[in-house]
Design goal:
2 domains; 25% strand; six-stranded mixed sheet; five-stranded mixed sheet
Amino acid sequence: MIKFYLYIALMLASFTALLLFVSGMKHGEYANELLTFASIGIPTSLGALFDFVLENRDRLKLAAQCFLFKRNEDIYVSLSYLLRIKLRGENKYLMVRGNKLKGQYQPIGGVYKKYDSLGEKWHRWGAREEKNDPENSDDLRFRVKRKFIPEIRKWFYQRKNREVDVWREFCEEAVQSGILPKVEFNHIKPEFLYTVEESLIFRKGKDVNQFLIYDIFQVNLTDEQEKSLRALYVQGAVVHDYAFVDESDLNKELFTFNNQEHQLGFHARYLIQ
């Protein structure tokens, strides 16, 4: 926001110079300097301000929504990551069976964890953990007043006071579950791709508006890992614990295999853009 204030200051200074020029100083000692400053400063500041607003329109829109409307409304926040694991040369994506929604297949991934160093901010936000998940009280899945959402968003992208690694959920959901072999998958190379935000939306499953962030990572497989993944696919494309889903199915909330429909997590669509 410092740039925004600088652009505003430049614009005000430029208009002040123009007013001084037309109000009686056009024949004065510094007339040329005032006119030059105004003629350069006004278009420059307006152009820069326009570019700033265009570049930050989503952030500015969110700030307006949170500060001008329903400031004390409860908002559900979830800050998480998803892993794109794809068979090389094919449009097949690995999904696993959900822990909370047992009948649903979804991408490997989960909610980031907060660290104790977040404590002061956490209390100032008045953040409350989800009551139905006491075993994961350090999850960044919580409720907060709408007015704190812009600050939480800014804090998230600073990557402070929180988990930033994606190994934990991969290990739990893919390796410790027995889906992928421990020997080949004792290490992965996740590559960050992009972030998806869902700002103040209402989606079934929650009784309040939601603010959701998903970091999307691609798991770059070694040759040995690729062989193991392909062997898993040959062993069974869709079984109880996992499924290989076509890319064309990711934008749907279900997929069909052997004439049987299976539920697919809504967020699976974020693996592709």
